[in-house]
């Protein structure tokens, strides 16, 4: 065990002040840096805190050929190992634990994708999407900072005789892959959001179209009913014995004509106009390409 006073005796005043500030800062990001006679590695790991994604920070210090781990409970530095391999194994163990969180969120994303593609969208889709996007974005930033720190550690260790450069370089490659995976998940979330909004807009357009048809059909009927409902003299069919039935016939005829008219417009638009104009455009484009080829052959 090494106390703060003992640490102060083994490092310069400037290094001691830097180490103290970094250790006291509970929100310090992952960082590796060297100082005369040793190095410090502030390592953050992912963990769940009250059903929310959080961090756990550990402080490793290499001084006088020994590796120490800071203990918050005892406010001192506990001897961790004399061998660099033990330290690197602990670092790799933390990384494997971080990777499990990435896989967990990846599974949640796949479930959300499958439900949306099967049109099984829950009422809280946007809340779930936002929470997932927030946590995966935090993981992406987390691995970005981890990559910088691990590269700095690799530069330092590659100059040492007993440093397993090949194994550590493979771990850096794994971090790059995890970072690329998290970036890909964010892109998938964005595509998922765009698809969800397209589905909602499509439903909204269909509802508006349906309401437009209803308005177009019943607006003339409402006008006629309002006209014949006026309490004025000289009203049509007022004295006629079959006036009510004639009004009903008129309303029914207008309703049928309106419905047939809307369907007829849809048929003309979808079949005749689109087919004919589409064939015409294709023919023009095709004929234009043939003319260009003939001009080249003539030359």
Beta-strand content: 5-15%
Cα-atom radius of gyration: 37 Å
Q: Strands across the major sheet, in which order? A: 1-2-3-4-5
Order of helices and strands: HHEEEEEHHHH
CATH fold description of the largest domain: Methane Monooxygenase Hydroxylase, Chain G, domain 1
Main sheet overview: 5 strands, antiparallel
CATH class of the largest domain: Mainly Alpha
- Helix fraction bin: 55-70%
The tally of structural domains comes to 3
Structural class: alpha+beta
Distance between the termini: 90 Å
Q: Tell me the CATH architecture of the largest domain.
A: Up-down Bundle
Strand count = 5
In DSSP terms, counting alpha (H) and pi (I) runs of 4 or more, how many helices? 6
Give the overall pLDDT as a whole number: 80
Shape: rod-shaped
Give a written overview of the molecule.
With 299 residues, this protein is α+β, with helices and mostly antiparallel strands. It is built from six helices and five strands. The chain has three domains: 82 residues, no CATH class; 136 residues, Methane Monooxygenase Hydroxylase, Chain G, domain 1 (Up-down Bundle), CATH 1.20.58.340; 69 residues. It is 69% helix and 13% strand. The longest helix is centred in the middle third of the chain and has 64 residues. The radius of gyration is 37 Å and the shape is rod-shaped. 11% of the residues are buried. The mean pLDDT is 80.
């Amino acid at each position: 065990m090494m106390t703060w006073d003992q640490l102060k005796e083994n490092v310069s005043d400037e290094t001691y002040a830097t180490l103290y500030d970094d250790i006291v800062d509970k929100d310090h990001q992952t960082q590796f840096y060297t100082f005369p006679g040793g190095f410090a590695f502030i390592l953050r790991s992912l963990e769940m805190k009250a059903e929310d994604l959080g961090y756990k920070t550990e402080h490793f210090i290499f001084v006088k050929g020994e590796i120490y781990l800071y203990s918050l409970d005892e406010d001192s530095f506990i001897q961790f190992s004399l061998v660099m391999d033990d330290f690197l194994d602990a670092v790799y163990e933390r990384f494997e634990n971080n990777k499990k969180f990435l896989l967990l969120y990846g599974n949640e994303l796949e479930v959300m994708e499958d439900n949306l593609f099967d049109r099984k969208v829950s009422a809280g889709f946007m809340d779930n999407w936002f929470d997932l996007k927030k946590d995966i974005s935090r993981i992406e930033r987390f691995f970005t900072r981890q990559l910088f720190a691990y590269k700095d550690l690799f530069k330092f260790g590659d100059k040492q005789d007993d440093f397993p450069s090949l194994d550590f370089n493979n771990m850096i490659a794994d971090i790059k892959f995890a970072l690329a995976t998290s970036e890909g998940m964010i892109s998938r979330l964005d595509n998922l959001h765009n698809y969800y909004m397209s589905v909602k807009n499509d439903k909204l357009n269909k509802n508006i179209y349906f309401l437009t048809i209803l308005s177009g059909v019943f607006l003339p009927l409402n006008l006629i009913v309002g006209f014949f409902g006026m309490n004025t003299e000289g009203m049509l069919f007022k004295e006629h014995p079959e006036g009510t039935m004639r009004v009903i016939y008129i309303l029914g005829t207008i309703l049928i004509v309106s419905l047939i008219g809307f369907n007829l417009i849809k048929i003309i638009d979808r079949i005749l106009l689109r087919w004919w104009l589409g064939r015409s455009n294709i023919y023009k484009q095709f004929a234009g390409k043939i003319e260009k080829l003939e001009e080249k052959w003539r030359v």
